[in-house]
Automatic annotation (TrEMBL):
<dbReference type="InterPro" id="IPR002347">
    <property type="entry name" value="SDR_fam"/>
</dbReference>
<dbReference type="InterPro" id="IPR036291">
    <property type="entry name" value="NAD(P)-bd_dom_sf"/>
</dbReference>
<keyword id="KW-0732">Signal</keyword>
<protein>
    <submittedName>
        <fullName>Uncharacterized protein</fullName>
    </submittedName>
</protein>
<feature type="signal peptide">
    <location>
        <begin position="1"/>
        <end position="16"/>
    </location>
</feature>
<dbReference type="InterPro" id="IPR052184">
    <property type="entry name" value="SDR_enzymes"/>
</dbReference>
<dbReference type="Pfam" id="PF00106">
    <property type="entry name" value="adh_short"/>
</dbReference>
<dbReference type="GO" id="GO:0016616">
    <property type="term" value="F:oxidoreductase activity, acting on the CH-OH group of donors, NAD or NADP as acceptor"/>
</dbReference>
Length: 311
């Protein structure tokens, strides 16, 4: 069972932290305070409640700030485009005139109906050989944006205490969620399909934040999911560091709480925690993709509110 901090306590803690910073003296303290990022709130219900109290349009109405004009005519490579949030991303990309390069294990009628510029099938994220031949199948040249979205979620909550750990599923999640996007990114870069100026988005999860586990998982558990997302975050940061000198920005994104088949087991708390339709979630993600630049490279961003998530 999830246990969350009350909103008042969360805000009080944040206020106390600010006071501790402002209590320092000298120019170093001033610089430190100015450079300290504004973090999102780990308590999901409190985060949603705060947004409603503040009438936060960025959180509650993404259309109020979303400008998709940058997508028109751009080649966007998207993994996992055949279903879930990936399909919603594909639909929004299509609506905005982007040239979709869908990278999937297999297509779907919904994806085919969008008439993507290219649909590359047989892309198994856990297969070195499948990912190694990926670039050979892409015929349209370099991409302007790469969105590594494909993932895997083992639904049962794993606990040591009830002997429900599933090590093979844990390894599968790590392989798909962390090594999968690394395989794809590496192959596209080596083939010259990712070049200077290309934006790379790694879709991971707030579940990969180690510091947020004490709030979001006070009883532990869910080992494979959280380890895989934490590993994916590490991968994203390391790629951002390697690509920094090549002027290729990489941002790690938590897509927010979206109403998809993958999250259906949480549907009882969808409304309490501010879950949104996947179409809205797609706009949130693409809003942040539009903001990717070298100043934001390597950052872990919550697409719900646009704030950073601590590691």
């Amino acid at each position: 069972m999830k246990v969350f901090l009350p909103l008042a306590l969360t805000l009080a803690t944040a206020s106390s932290y600010s006071l501790q910073l402002t209590g320092r003296t000298g120019r170093f303290a001033s610089t430190r305070l100015m450079s300290t990022p504004t973090y999102s709130i780990p308590d999901q219900p409190a985060r949603f409640a705060k947004a409603k109290v503040e009438n936060n349009s960025r959180f509650l109405d993404i259309d109020s700030c979303y400008d998709p004009s940058y997508l028109s005519g751009k080649r966007v490579a998207l993994t996992g485009a055949n279903r879930g949030i990936g399909l919603s991303l594909a639909k929004e990309l299509s609506a905005q005139g982007a040239k979709i390069v869908a990278l999937v294990r297999k297509s779907s009628p919904e994806l085919d109906a969008l008439n993507p510029e290219e649909v590359i099938t047989g892309i198994e994220a856990t297969s070195d050989s499948a990912c190694a031949t990926l670039a050979d199948k892409i015929k349209g040249g370099p991409v302007d944006v790469l969105i590594n979205n494909a993932g895997y979620f083992y639904e049962p909550v794993e606990m040591i205490s009830d002997s429900s750990l599933n090590f093979s599923e844990e390894l599968k999640m790590i392989d798909i969620c962390a090594l999968g996007p690394l395989r794809v990114t590496s192959n596209l870069f080596q083939a010259g399909l990712i070049k200077e100026g290309c934006r790379v988005a790694m879709i991971t999860s707030q579940g990969g934040s180690v510091s947020w586990r004490t709030t979001q998982n006070p009883s532990g558990g869910d080992y494979g999911h959280h380890m895989s997302k934490s590993a994916a975050n590490m991968m994203g940061v390391l790629v951002s560091q390697e690509f920094r000198s090549k002027n290729i920005p990489v941002t790690i994104l938590h897509p927010g709480f979206n109403k998809t088949e993958m999250t259906k087991k949480y549907e009882k708390i969808w409304e309490i925690e501010g879950a949104v339709d996947a179409a809205v979630g797609a706009k949130r993600v693409l809003h942040e993709v539009g903001l990717i630049n070298m100043e934001r490279t390597g950052k872990f961003i919550n697409c719900e509110d646009g704030l950073e998530i601590p590691w």
